[in-house]
From TrEMBL:
Coiled coil: none
PANTHER family on file: PECTINESTERASE INHIBITOR-LIKE, PLANT INVERTASE_PECTIN METHYLESTERASE INHIBITOR
Source lineage: Eukaryota, Viridiplantae, Streptophyta, Embryophyta, Tracheophyta
Molecular functions per Gene Ontology: enzyme inhibitor activity
Organism field: Arachis hypogaea (Peanut)
Name by which UniProt lists this protein: Pectinesterase inhibitor domain-containing protein
Record keywords, A-Z: Signal
Gene3D superfamilies: Invertase/pectin methylesterase inhibitor family protein
Family statement drawn from the similarity comment of this UniProt entry: Belongs to the PMEI family.
One Pfam family it belongs to: PMEI
Nucleotide-binding among keywords: no
Pectinesterase inhibitor domain boundaries: 2-114
Amino acid sequence: MIAKSSFRTLTKLSQSTRLTKAESSVLADCRDNIDDTVDRLQQSAKQLARLNGTRTVEERFEWDSIKTWMSAAITDEYTCTDGIGEMKVRVSLQKKIQSSIANVAWMNSNALALVNKISY
């Protein structure tokens, strides 16, 4: 899963001994946000696996829950990148963080678009 890979990248970056306090803070916040993203996407995947196409009220509710979780995951990703702009972070580190997060956001956005197309 790309979100897990992003989390590992952020963890590796956060282990550098040359980080400023601001950079450490940004990385910690991003790791928390991406950890939440991983949880929400796993929750969505589990729920998708349980759907059976019955078109019941309950199943429609489940589709709505999946959309909500996936949207929240995307929000978490953008919260991370917004934090970078608010703190003093070296450009080289900004690029590494943003690259990692951009891949996750792009995949999640596409996945949400598919869910919106196939849901009721």
